[in-house]
Model the fold of this input.
Amino acid sequence: MTESAQAVREFKMPDVGEGLTEAEILKWYVQPGDTVTDGQVVCEVETAKAAVELPIPFDGTVRELRFAEGTTVDVGQVIITVDTGGGGAPAAGPAAAPAEAPDAEAESAEPQGRQPVLVGYGVSESSTKRRARRSANEAPAVRAPAAETPTPAPAAPVANGVPVSGADRPLAKPPVRKLAKDLGVDLATVVPTGEGGVVTREDVHAAAVPQAPAEPAQAAARPQAAPGAQPAVAPAPDARETRIPVKGVRKATAQAMVGSAFTAPHVTEFVTVDVTRTMKLVEKMKADKDLAGVRINPLLMVARALLVAIRRNPDVNAAWDEANQEIVRKHYVNLGIAAATPRGLIVPNIKDAQAKTLPELAAALGELVGTAREGRTSPADMQGGTVTITNVGVFGVDTGTPILNPGESAILAFGAVKWQPWVHKGKVKPRQVTTLALSFDHRLVDGELGSRVLADVAAFLEHPKRLLTWT
Done:
């Protein structure tokens, strides 16, 4: 091996989450000819679990980018080469299409029977499917021989007439960068309004489609985007339809939901309950000085109610082991909370939720939702869930028939709390009412058990003083 060859090091696509098999390159932060240092972020990739920035583990000069932005790359494939000795010439630029290894080599490199781990759902039972091969008319990456004259690095991008260097690239969180890419917005041209010069989602939307200010009342009443909603893309004036690639979280969620719907026999039961006392208790706790700094809300009370119901009916906290034909009862509760994020709906979970006090549960719930919305949820937080709550009420929805997360036996939908006429102590009075829906796997949860769990949740929310007598 020559000295020049020895100076070139390869950086392969890492497994940024346990069991992941591929990731999409969202953005390159370097180009051939750029100097990189150990720990410098060179690209941003998106997996089925998170958008992640990848740091390179050595110093040198970028020689070649093996894949173009928007390309899905298998874990273990080389994505960038770096000349660590200064003896090689950089390649002409980023590859127009991914370079593939020969079929035999690619197949032998993939472990037999390896299964991808989906978003918070454990291991999928379906067989692994490799992505489609590149068509014959797509050109592979071309590597420049070491003896060629080095190609000058591409010119730095220009924003408002001022060149922007790699060190001065716009500051933005990964979800914001993804949004900008989807909307076709160059972050270098966006005027940041966030603290410390950070580009926000609002800045990107403003740069994409300038909008007239809404009336104050309408702006205050406008709901947030629905969970899993794709970024809006303005179609051409004569367009009759828009096609959006299915990838990342949306792809993983779709695969998991189809697998769950056609594997576990779903049953959903409903109950409408007067939660006036619980809502009053929430307001009292918010005003309690001893709970200052603790985020108290109705979802917290629903979570506590479900945990109490599981303790009283432990058989509902279980999983179906198809391979061994066994029901696996869990002696812990990893409570999943469905959270709407810029990348879609994800379900991180609170580990050992059954062991937490109410303030501890409130803190864990607030941290979990906040981290998810910022796009910083770790893969570990989305694995090992045992039961889930989906709060559809925040969108004004009364209830629904939620689909089970694979590997779990139950999921509770919490509907909107509304004032309704209700018979209370023999008289019709306005009361705060909500509808709960519990979906469960009928293979291991029969109608009696499911009904007892739902009835316990409802009873707790109707008379929250049971917090003292049932726990």
Remarks:
- Residues 358-373 form the longest helix (16 residues).
- The CA atoms of residues 195 and 438 lie 42 Å apart.
